Amino acid sequence: LTEDDVYCRCLSRTLCHTATPVTVGFYAPCGHRLESLLAKVTACMREEMARREAAELQRGHRKPRSPHGWGLLVALWLLAFYEPVVTEGHLRRKNLEFIFIRFSAWEFAGCDKLWAGLVTTLCHRIRQHFGALPLSVFHVLGSRPRFASGFSQREWVLKKGTCLRLWGLLLVLAAGLAILLVALLVPGIKEHRALKVVGSAVASLSGSSLVLGALSILKNFLVSEKKKIERLTDSDRFAGQLGFMSKIRGEVEVLVDFLAFMEVFERRRLRVVLEITSLDLCYPEKVAGVFNAMATLLSDANAPFIFLLAVDPSVIVPCLEQTGCMKGLADNGYLYLNRAVTLPFSIPEMGWRSRLRSVEAAIQTREDLMYRIIAGNVAKT
C-alpha cells in the first residue's frame, strides 16, 4: 500500500462509522491529486459496503431489496397504503449503501447562485437513483417513518385513514354511477331529471377527488424538484419573495423523509456522499454561498448527508477572507473553515511510494491503461 492508500482507507473507515450529517474537509496540498484521492476513498467505501452486505446476509437477515423491477410495484403499494416504522431490528442493521454524488463547482461557476446548483444536483441525482415514480408518489401519499413503541419488529403499519377514505370515495362513486344508470336506463324513471342531476353530481364529485390525486402524482412526476428550484431562482423577483429559502428547504426536507422511507423499504442504511470539488476555482462570494447552503439548507439533524469538501486550504482560505461573511471572525479564514467543517482530514505531501506509483501510471502505454480499466470493470461486476 502507498501512503495515499493508507490515508484514504482510514478516511473511508471513519465515514462508515461517523454520524450524519457531517462535513468532512478533505484537504490536499495539490489540486491535481484530489481526483485520484477521491477515487481511492470511493473504492474503499464500496468495498466496505460489499463486506457489510455479505456479513448481514450471513447473520440470516432478510435480503435487501431495491425499487426497480418487481420491487417498484412493492414500493408503490407500501407508499400508498402503509406507514413505515423504525424498529430495533432496523437500528441494528450494519449494511450500508452509499449514494455518491459528484458536484463540480466549476460547472456552475457562471450561475448567479452557485449554491442553487448544489441543491439541484442533490435533488436530481436522488431522483435519478431511485426513479421518478416512487418520489412522485411519496410527495402525495408518502409519510416519514415513525419509531416503534417497545420492541415490536413490525416495520409496516396499514394506513387506516387512507384506506377508509379510498374505500369511501369508491363506494360513493359506485353509488353515483348506479343512480345515474338507473335514471338513464330504467323505464318510468327516465323522466325524473332530478335523479339524473343527483347521480351525476355524486359521481363527478367523488371521481374528481380521485382524479386530483392522480394529477398531483403526475405533476410531481413531470416537474422534478430540480425544475421547481430552477423556476424559483429564475424569477426576477425571487430575492423579495417571502419564504423563498423555506420553499427550497421544504424540498430538501421531502428528500430527507423519502430517504428515511427507502431505508426501511430497502432494509439497509442509506448515506448520501456529496463530493464537492473545484470550489477553489470559483469567485469568493460564490464560494461563501456554497458554505451557507451546506449550513442552512442541508444540515437537517436527521439528514443522511456526508459532505466531502475536497479543497486546497491554502487556496480556499484567502478566497473566503475576501468575502463579507468574515465579519465578526477577525478576518480569519481558517477560523471560518473550522466552524463550517465538522471533521477536518489533511493529507500530507506525496510520499515516495505514492510518487513511484504515479510515475508507473504515467509511463504505462495506452494498451496497459485500457487493460487496467477493463480488468477493473470486470472486478466490479
From TrEMBL:
Keywords recorded for this protein, A-Z: Membrane, Transmembrane, Transmembrane helix
Domain KAP NTPase: 8-351
Xref: InterPro entries: KAP_P-loop (IPR011646), NTPase_KAP_P-loop (IPR052754)
Superkingdom assignment: Eukaryota
Transmembrane segments: 164-186, 198-218
The name this protein goes by in its record: NKPD1 protein
Native source organism of the sequence: Helopsaltes ochotensis (Middendorff's grasshopper-warbler)
Lineage: Eukaryota, Metazoa, Chordata, Craniata, Vertebrata
Protein's gene: Nkpd1
